[in-house]
Write a structure and sequence with these properties.
It contains one helix and two strands; from the N terminus they run E-E-H. It has a two-stranded antiparallel ribbon. The chain starts with 12 loop residues before the first strand and ends with a helix.
């Protein structure tokens, strides 16, 4: 069963346009390895 989660939208407007994104935020820890590699570079 898939349920929708309603979250607050981005408060930023440019020329009155409200921006949205179909892509959600990453899961906790999803990008940790990539970020740590960037610091080692």
């Amino acid at each position: 069963m898939v349920t929708a989660t309603v979250l607050p939208r981005c408060p930023i407007r440019i020329d009155g346009e409200i921006f949205t994104s179909a892509k959600g935020s990453p899961a906790l820890g999803e990008n940790t390895g990539t970020i740590l590699q960037e610091f080692k570079a």
